[in-house]
Amino acid sequence: MTSDRFNSLFNEYRQQVVDLSTAAVNASSPAETPTWLHVLQRHVQEWKQHYGSESQAIQEIRAKHRHSQLSSQAKFTDLEQEILEVTKSFELKRETIWIRQQNELSRLGISMG
């Protein structure tokens, strides 16, 4: 698979996730239209949870590598590679969260840039 094809498929997937997530949030909202304050509070809570999950994942990787039988150099290289992969995964999730949240805010007529 070429990188262009991968990027195309990933962008299609990301847009589907954004659309489905936005629809799910709108469907589960109360009958009244949420105020911008409620939306922003929910967004802040989502970011706190996201960064907490990322931190926890990295801590679990470090704990796993503390008990590894590899040499110290191999252990360090393996640890750094695994942390890098987890960080990249969370970066992709952040992009998706950001796009979805911008869509929610734009529906309320709010632009956060």
List keywords for this structure.
flat; 0% strand; mainly alpha; 113 residues
Explain briefly what this protein structure is.
Helix content is 82%, strand content 0%. With 113 residues, it is an all-alpha fold. The protein is flat.
Report on the architecture of this protein.
With 113 residues, the protein is mostly helical. The chain has one domain. The protein has 3 helices and no strands. The protein has helices at residues 3-28, 36-66, 72-107. Helix 1 crosses helix 3 (72-107) and helix 2 packs antiparallel against helix 3 (72-107). The longest helix has 36 residues, at 72-107. The protein starts with a helix and ends in a 6-residue tail after the last helix. The mean pLDDT is 81.
Series of secondary-structure elements, N-terminal to C-terminal: HHH
Largest sheet: none
Overall outline: flat
Count of helical regions: 3
Percentage of β-strand residues: under 5%
Helix content: over 70%
User: What is the count of distinct domains?
Assistant: 1
Through-space gap between termini: 34 Å
List segments where confidence is low: pLDDT < 50 over at least 5 consecutive residues: none
Mean pLDDT: 81
**Helix vs. strand class:** mainly alpha
How many DSSP E strands?
0
Rg for CA atoms: 19 Å
